[in-house]
UniProtKB/TrEMBL annotation:
Residue ranges of the annotated DNA-binding region, renumbered to this chain: 1-51
GO MF terms, alphabetically ordered: DNA binding
Descriptive protein name: Transcriptional regulatory protein, C terminal
Record flagged with keyword Plastid: no
The entry's keywords: DNA-binding
Domain OmpR/PhoB-type: residue ranges: 1-51
Superkingdom assignment: Bacteria
TM regions (residue ranges): none
Coiled coil regions, renumbered to chain: none
InterPro entries with a match to the protein in the record: OmpR/PhoB-type_DNA-bd (IPR001867), Sig_transdc_resp-reg_C-effctor (IPR016032), WH-like_DNA-bd_sf (IPR036388)
DNA-binding found in the keyword field: yes
One GO BP: regulation of DNA-templated transcription
Length: 52
């Protein structure tokens, strides 16, 4: 499970606006590329990779 704040700080640095939709955009790109594996959004928690 990766929280939005953790993704912002580790990938884009601390100077990124927390209200930015950059995480949403890149999660959408990853969902398109991963095919069978998928990224699940857990409201209030973050994102996780789910494999079958």
């Amino acid at each position: 499970m990766l929280a939005r704040e953790r993704l912002l700080s580790h990938v884009w640095g601390y100077d990124v606006d927390p209200g930015s939709n950059v995480v949403d955009v890149y999660v959408r790109y990853l969902r398109r590329k991963l095919g069978a594996a998928r990224i699940e959004t857990v409201r209030g928690m973050g994102h996780r990779l789910v494999t079958d």
